[in-house]
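Per reviewer request, we include the raw input and output of the structure prediction for the construct analysed in the revised manuscript.
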Amino acid sequence: MRLVPKIKPATSVEAEAITPDMFAGKSLEEILSLPVWEGNTKRKLGDFFEVEGDVEATAAEVQIVIDGDASRIKHIGAKMTAGEIVVKGSADMHAGDGMKGGRIVIEGNADSFTALSMQGGEIIIKGYAKDYLGSAPRGEWRGMRGGRIIVEGDAGREVGSWMIGGLIHVKGNISSFAGVHMKKGTIIVDGDAGMRIGAEMIGGTIIVLGKLEKILPGFSYKGIVDNAKASEEVLKGPFMRFVGDLVEDGKGNLFLLSERNKHLL
């Protein structure tokens, strides 16, 4: 199914309807009539998009291509369980919230709060991701629980906060407070990491291949290791291994590439 934006809305549109689960088994007319919200006004999907393509019977068979800018379209792929969404541009906040399966590819940038409480599936962001990627919703203590997120560019603050499973791999740099309150799961950063990484983490693994300017005092140095395991992948070191955050009696692992972080010893 191909969705072509008609206009760029003046305010963000909440479009939980844009999922393979919602499209599957519906006629083209039914898809055009799916409800979306512009502010507090209920609208139809067809008010904002031209929709064309073949209707599939099951979510696993559905591929949705948003052929244009979706930087003011929120909740793309929220709670989806199967199928694929490709955004040929940028996406607004909350893409992939509560996602359980399938695949989302964002060829541009992803706004804040992408993949909140994600449970499964895969999200690939070819640009950068803003703040709170794979984190917990406000007032909730359970962040990303499973699945896989790949960011080709940089990412903002509090990536993986309250994370309890899954993998986040940022190939660029990452901002402050990554992995705050983390319990399980893995965060890999190919670039540099901002301040207070792993604050109050209890468990899980954070691996930084770039430079960390300063480490929190709640992390205890455990020596040099040759490799660091990230999910099913083994990354070659040597790495400096720290355990923390001891403020929370934490047993999380923080691996820092030795050649970039000798200033921390």
